[in-house]
Write a structure and sequence with these properties.
Chains A, B: Pfam families: MDD_C (PF18376), MVD-like_N (PF22700). Chains A, B: Residues 7-165 form the Diphosphomevalonate decarboxylase-like N-terminal domain. Chains A, B: Its EC number is 4.1.1.33. The structure is a homodimer of 325-residue chains. The first copy, chain A, is an alpha+beta fold and 325 residues long. Chain A has helices spanning 66-82, 105-120, 127-135, 192-202, 206-225, 229-248, 259-273, 297-305; strands at residues 2-14, 19-21, 26-27, 31-48, 55-58, 61-62, 88-96, 149-153, 164-167, 177-183, 278-281, 288-292, 310-317, 323-324. Chain A folds into 2 domains: 2-173, Ribosomal Protein S5, domain 2; 177-317, Alpha-Beta Plaits (2-Layer Sandwich), CATH 3.30.70.890. Helices cover 36% and strands 26% of the residues of chain A. In chain A, strands 1, 4, 5, 6, 7, 8, 9 and 14 form an 8-stranded mixed beta sheet that branches. A 4-stranded antiparallel beta sheet of chain A has the order 11-12-10-13. A two-stranded antiparallel ribbon of chain A has the order 2-3.
Chain lengths: 325, 325
């Protein structure tokens, strides 16, 4: 009843922005991501008959706060699925996702937790089933089950039974790289959960955002199929800008951007003006991720590091899905 | 056949963003502005029988480029109105609107030109007629005919006959101040004309922007009536953010913001967190205008001047409409 799984984080190129069901974590739109090899969580789950409650260690430290409750609540779903309502687990997670890099460690975290827990109980889940259960821990985590480009189908059913991720191009590997640009900016003021909710409820731009997704998705999948980096980059950048536009219309309005965020965006545009294909995307925080091709790694990295207010640039490439150790 | 008029620039609190007729300069939405005393254009127009074409001096220099053609084209409208198709003018303009401050000198410029030309020919125009003709030189200029808070009615007619500005609160003076924060940033890459056009044609957010205007206008006019500075400031800031959101959805997307633009926005929000009511608004360029009350002038000015990348802060207060000298 013990298993260890490793899952990588992912960066959305077509953003997940807005929930249609907060409890089941059902999104208002399909999203598409690239799994990254640089950042991961490794989690061991051991179910033990002698435990009367779950125990959770993160980076060797016992966790008892809200993070613990998210883990327990998620293990309840696994227990329900396994019909083992009184079987508790000891969980050990090692997070190789620096919070400062602006990646949600919840994506790799819940993917690794779900995979290890399901394997520990020998649930024999298909990847789709695993993705579906993972989604209920953290939405974007459902994409981290797979490597490479991944699409999360929002689904239509009220119970979420058709809301899970699938690989977009499972056969071939395409070496697209991502630089995570870390800013010295402080923590974000509006959580992504609160930001989504406020935007869905109050932004006049939200419905246009949702309406614009199907054509973005179709185009970017075409670009991935054709390995057309500029097409993929352009659509990703434009999609990110649309997502951030919706927050400016919320009531009260807000933005995740800081001054250095803008400086990085401008630098990426300058790179393109100088003939280097590079594109940015930004999640619900101030940090920027820059997509580029391997041959431009040195130039891209050097230029990004020179921007005042940038404290670190972490490089990553297309990574694999969940693995078991 | 000679007259001199002085007109001030204005800052839109409900933005003019989108044209329904490019030739007649008819907007897609009503807008509302505050006329500012700090920045103005003084223009003398003399119609002379001996001239065979218009002559235009700006700041004592003869102008022959595109600016000259905009002036001549505008004087054609005046000539048409006066039924004096072969009467040309010598025009002298002095611009006290530093381009670097990010104010469109075309607002005060065309208001002063229209007023001086109409007066020189003794056309006996009402303010509304003058505003309507001014509009055809530069849209936002039609608001500079009046002092204080001014609303530009977009109008419904195809010929623009009901598209002109009117004063919002003609009776009483309210001492609201504006700091124009000048950035070291380079010239903007997308003109406001091109930016509007691209947004109208391609942004999925444009129709929601237009739909959101009537309630913003109603609320801000209520705020002006009640002299509720925080209400006026909040609506102005939110309206500006919505306008800039529309550009992020355009194809290709663009923004007028620079890194220092964001830094100023954040500083204004910090001012509020420290109990000082201050609100920003941004036109189609990187510079920021900050609204504040007289009692906070020193604090606001000091804090804005300290922001790295800010080269100057120019203070202004509510100004008067067109005057004749």
């Amino acid at each position: 009843m013990k298993a260890t799984a490793k899952a990588h984080t992912n960066i959305a190129l077509i953003k997940y922005w807005g929930k249609r069901d907060e409890k089941l974590i059902l999104p208002t739109n399909n999203s598409l991501s690239l799994t990254l090899d640089g950042f991961y969580t490794k989690t061991t789950v051991e179910f033990r008959e002698d435990l009367t409650e779950d125990i959770f260690y993160l980076d060797h430290k016992l966790v008892t706060d809200e993070q613990y409750h998210r883990v327990t609540k998620f293990l309840d779903l696994i227990r329900e699925y396994a019909q083992e309502k009184t079987l508790f687990a000891e969980v050990h997670s090692i997070n190789e996702v620096p919070t400062a890099a602006g990646f949600a460690s919840s994506a790799s975290g819940f993917a690794a937790l779900a995979a290890a827990a399901a394997r520990a109980l020998n649930l024999g889940l298909s990847d789709q089933e695993l993705s579906k259960i993972t989604r209920q821990g953290s939405g974007s985590a459902c994409r981290s089950i797979y490597g490479g480009f991944v699409e999360w189908h929002k689904g239509m059913e009220l119970d979420g039974s058709d809301s899970y991720a699938v690989p977009v191009s499972p056969q071939d590997h395409w070496d697209v790289r991502v630089a995570a640009v870390v800013l010295s900016a402080k923590m974000k003021k509006v959580s992504s959960r609160e930001g989504m909710r406020r935007t869905v409820e109050t932004s006049p731009f939200f419905s246009s955002w949702v309406d614009s997704i199907p054509s973005d998705l179709e185009d970017i999948k075409q670009g991935i199929k054709e390995r057309d980096f500029e097409k993929v980059g352009q659509i990703a950048e434009a999609n990110c800008l649309k997502m951030h536009a919706t927050t400016l219309g919320a009531n009260p309005p807000f933005t995740y951007w800081h001054d250095t965020t803008l400086a990085v965006m401008q630098t990426v545009q300058q790179l393109r003006e100088n003939g280097i294909p590079a594109y940015f995307t930004i999640d619900a925080g101030p940090n920027v991720k820059v997509l580029y091709l391997p041959e431009n790694e040195e130039k891209v990295q050097d230029i990004l590091r020179e921007i005042p207010g940038v404290t670190d640039v972490k490089l990553s490439r297309s990574g694999q899905g969940v693995t078991y150790i």
